[in-house]
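User: Hello, can you help with two protein structures?

Assistant: Certainly.
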Amino acid sequence: MSRVDLINQLMEQYYANLVYTQEIQRLRLFLRQKYCCEDDEQLLMEMQKLGRNVNSQQHLTFMFASPLVIQRQNSDDYLEIDQLDWPGEWANLRKALSDNNKAIKTRKICGTLENLQLILDEGTLVLHFSGHGQTEDAFQGSEFREFHNKGDVLILESLVGTQNFLTKNQLREYLHKKMDIKLVFVASCHSEQTGWTFHEAGIGHVICTRRETPIKDAAQKKFTARFYRHLFSDEFSICEAFDKARRFIASDSNPLIADEAFKFIIIRPKDKPYNINNQKAQKDFYEKILRNQHDCPCKSIGAFEKGKLQV
């Protein structure tokens, strides 16, 4: 019996005997994460226990986080949260890479704190995070006000599938100077501050989105697929792949998608962080990106062998 069949059998038994409760919701989230993500977490942990460097030749790690519910503070109550179409983003990305006919090694893994630490320790050529992001200002006056003034957050998943807010300061504690990662792509709303945190920890190139405005999921998926198609073609540098993907979005026939192009930003090795309250510095940085004015000698991230996409 497959794991999926086992889950279905377990759920049928629970539904047959119990009404749909929050405990059932928690169980469903737990089972989904533990068994329905291609066994990534279990495989990684088992290989780690054997002392194997599971990521020594990993080209792209796709980390997703989309909690189905937000657990309220000091309560067993839950709030609904918009679901991201990370499966669609993952499918588009795989299709784009398959078209290159290169033996790109990819992995999909759920965005928990435990898995983030594992990937940062093991290394990967490219780390792509698909999930929710939020500014610290959004927590002011809310029941989660303890996160106000602690930096912008990424919303990861807990081990039972609820939210895990990762603040800028907490992320710094996970990052270290010896990370074997050449590019981080933070595909979430309001992710600029998170992007700078990765950059300050030694990641040369970081792609993220402007802090002050959310980004449409459809535009994010299109940009992601086009960017990685160029990046893993062996023909373009990271900066060139970014510029081509941004222009591709800007030329979209749907104006609602085209208008999202300016929200994508890239942080390069020589870029310096600016005070987020300095509007002139922010404007100058954004305009430099839009005018494609980058002093970056980056090259193609590698010469990949011909072959099929490895997932």
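That covers the first. Now for the second protein you mentioned:
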Amino acid sequence: MMIDPLTGLDEDLVFGAEHRGRARSSSRLEVEAGLIATSCAAMEPVFYDKDERFFSEVHFTVPHLVHPVQGYTSVDFILEVPKRYPQEAPRIYPVRPTLPFDHRSHLYVDELDNNRTHICVWAEGEWTTNHSLAGAMIWAAIWINKYAVFKHEGTWPGPERPHCPKCGALLVNGCDHHPLEG
């Protein structure tokens, strides 16, 4: 197994030249579905099409958490694939249980989408077309286990960046919606 230095994931989960070549004769989403089926089978992925594409959502479960979350030992997610994918990053939403917003737990609030919360696994601008949906699902599994440790112990395990306390956006000089005061 070779680890990609940029993503920290197995190189097989990076959408490289071999994957791009296969996508030319089918579609990117068809190649991505194959990656998910082989690399994330334990998450029991289910593909849904909401807008005439190969698929637009992947529902999946991360089993066997290090600590229960709200009494659950597994967590269900929906990975939403935007129409501009892969130029635009997917979003990953915890759906069972739903997780209340808390900026310390690396969640974002979609203020324009019923205030749903999605997880923070990459910063704005860090997503590239070399990333894959299977890799995003692996990151979700890592994230939910860090979240479980955070809820159990009170501190986030590993490196982190500050998030806006109102919407969860990463803070550099304040977020676009809630400028820093003072």
